[in-house]
Specification:
homodimer; 424 residues; alpha/beta; Aldehyde Dehydrogenase, Chain A, domain 1; Aldehyde Dehydrogenase, Chain A, domain 2; 21% strand
Chain lengths: 424, 424
């Protein structure tokens, strides 16, 4: 990359020069056809496969440095690539290549009495900044999603993965260039200077959107400091409410899956609400305890099983991301809705019930990005929603919420077709 | 209003208490039916009519203070209400009452192979802060649009209109309350302390969106200081490009209307681009000059008519909001697109042409919220677009652009209906 050899000047000047190059490339990308973008991403996937040796060698350098720097085993595992994982990354890029292009889609259209014809048409957002931590697959995933929707990507990965990210970006860029995508379409920030992150966050007018991918402290910093719009969620304090009319076996299966399938993902349930009229609450908590989950309950929940620890006031607002679950007994749907309104992070909340009226009220009244009936909160995922992929899950309200994939990476413009109409 | 009698504490504490009241009211509003919201706004319109005397008396106080404070005639005219103008305000509220409710609209839905059924459903944004200047009609218009889409409004009007705004808000609130809308749904900030504006702009998590309505300095301040998402546009540097294949009579009529119909609105054309191959450029500039418009041109434009003044580099980036127009001669569509890409504020740009291919390229390649063919840029308006009203015109990219009305005041949530699916 040219920017690597350029003098660094200030972080702001570096971001401006990267952003201008990205914006120029994005204008070309915005005019590329669906088929051209597909071909470019297929070529990028092929380049990732062709560069297997170089990418794995770069990754080995990162792993060695990480061990020397005392990274935990969990962090090293997140960082580690092997032939199977790299093949998975290339396959994911190819899957994104095959997704339907949202750009150019007509959202709606109308004709005015004076003959003006209006259409709202999907267009790319522009230049998207991705700020992420150790997982090198984000370099390929995020770049592919951005390019597929006609956006340029400016990537700023974590220091632990710097060599892996550079090798992956080099392969992607070569593949994309071979299919006519300008080289600025996917750029990796060529320095780990943390001041560059600050410069990206304040580059309003140069970067159109920031997507943070990583832990809560990263997301919190981005949300606090960004002057550029951010698509993100901070917490996934997800609730599963077992209504009085829930099927007991379904309630147990869903509670177990929603908490324990993978405890570290944002869609994992963190609070279980048991209706006081639900007759099988004891079975649900027993199954959770027997599966190795620590339960922290209010007084009525603790009466169900002596193994349940007392919950503190903080527990209702805690995202454990671990085999820990807070449990409260509530008096009916209204009490459940009130608890969720107060404590939910508006990510994903679910009701288990056989009562259609209760289900519809829950669907309508819970103000979260995703609201579920009789399903595990762990389905909160772009792939599971059939979007093919996701750039992240958004809890903001303007205007993409939930799993954000290609469509969420676009906005629209109004196209107006007239025949000489002047406004009276 | 209770807040008026409460101790003011800090601006942040005042905004928090207003916002919490607004948010509580909004939750009730979000559950109200289409018919209930219509009835409430019809009642608000009736209350505005019933309070004519009180509102006009309050307005007379503002006008007297404005004259004493040396407001210009233009500012006094913006501030002034009379029976006809107030009737117009009430009629506008009633028109909004009759618009179709976007809340609950299903944007799209799908079914997954595992039987999960997904829907994206429109929901209100929440609590919307409106920060505006002297026009008291904004108090009624903005409140009506917010409530129609299930949002609460926190209004902070200009000092010049303080009595008018309070009288209008009191009438609206009484009408809304008579139809079951909680009193916090529409609140006027009960102090003109400017620090409250700062507290609103940084009330992320309490206020969901800010809409500034007023001059460029107000919008610039809001955009610079807000931590809450902002729907706005800063500049309306709109272009009309007369392509070589434009009909000469249509070109003249559109150029005149786009600039001169009303020069002070954001959709007024500020730069005219004349194709070097367009044969009737002289007629277009003569008509503009004869209508009283000052033209500032590049060298080739000035050769068309000796009355054209020389343009400086700044002129291409200036929103005159006056009977002044910058004029450049360009060599074909590519040069026009390049000029617009460099100088447009991405609000509204238009081409005049009889060539469909040129029109389609312009529609696709100009990256503005509104792109027009053979129509006056002065049509950039929610009412003209058939939206019934508008809260403003947005040039941001996430995710409402162009005239923003009811739909732009909503976001969506994903509703998921399952039958016990657990994620493998």
């Amino acid at each position: 990359m040219n920017a690597q050899t350029a003098p660094l000047e200030t972080p702001e000047a570096l971001v401006e020069s990267l952003a201008r190059k990205g914006r120029d490339a994005q204008r070309v990308l915005a005019g590329m056809s669906d088929a051209d973008k597909t071909a470019a991403l297929v070529a990028a996937a092929a380049a990732l496969r062709a560069d297997e040796k170089a990418i794995l060698a770069a990754n080995a350098r990162d792993l060695a440095a990480g061990e020397a720097n005392g990274l935990t085993n969990a962090m090293l595992d997140r960082l580690k690539l092997d032939p199977a994982r790299l093949a998975g990354i290339a396959d994911a890029v190819e899957q994104v290549a095959r997704l339907k292009d949202p750009v150019g889609q007509v959202i709606d259209s109308s004709e005015r009495p004076n003959g003006l014809r209006l259409s709202r048409v999907r267009v790319p957002i522009g230049l998207i900044g991705i700020i992420y931590e150790s997982r090198p697959n984000v370099t390929a995933d995020a770049a592919a999603l951005c390019v597929r929707a006609g956006n340029a990507a400016l990537l700023r990965g974590g220091s632990e993965a710097v060599h892996s990210n550079r090798a992956i970006e080099a392969a992607m860029a070569r593949g994309l260039a071979s299919a006519g995508v300008p080289e600025g379409a996917v750029q990796l920030v060529p320095t780990q200077d943390r001041a560059v992150v600050g410069a990206m966050l304040t580059a309003a007018g140069l970067i159109d959107m920031i997507v943070p991918r990583g832990g809560k402290s990263l997301v919190a910093r981005v949300q606090a400091d960004a002057r550029v719009p951010v698509l993100a969620h901070l917490d996934g304090i997800c609730h599963t409410y077992i209504h009085s009319a829930a099927d007991p076996a379904m309630a147990t299966a869903l509670a177990l899956n929603a908490k324990m399938r993978r405890t570290g993902i944002c869609g994992a349930t963190e609070t279980l609400l048991l209706d006081a009229q639900f007759p099988a609450s004891h079975d649900v908590v027993s199954a959770l305890l027997d599966s190795g989950c620590e339960l922290r309950g209010d007084a009525r929940a603790r009466a169900l099983d002596p193994r349940i620890l007392p919950a503190s006031a903080n527990d209702w607002d805690t995202e454990y991301l671990d085999a820990i679950l807070s449990v409260a007994v509530v008096d009916g749907l209204d009490a459940a809705l009130a608890h969720i309104a107060r404590h939910s992070s508006h990510h994903t909340d679910a009701i288990v019930t056989g009562d259609d009226a209760a289900a519809e009220r829950f669907l309508n009244e819970v103000d979260s990005a995703i609201v579920m009936v009789n399903a595990s909160t762990q389905f909160a995922d772009g792939g599971e929603f059939g979007l093919g992929a996701e750039i992240g899950i958004a809890t903001g309200r303007l205007h993409a919420r939930g799993p954000v994939a290609l469509e969420g990476l676009t906005t629209y413009k109004w196209q107006v077709r007239g025949s000489g109409q002047t406004r009276p």
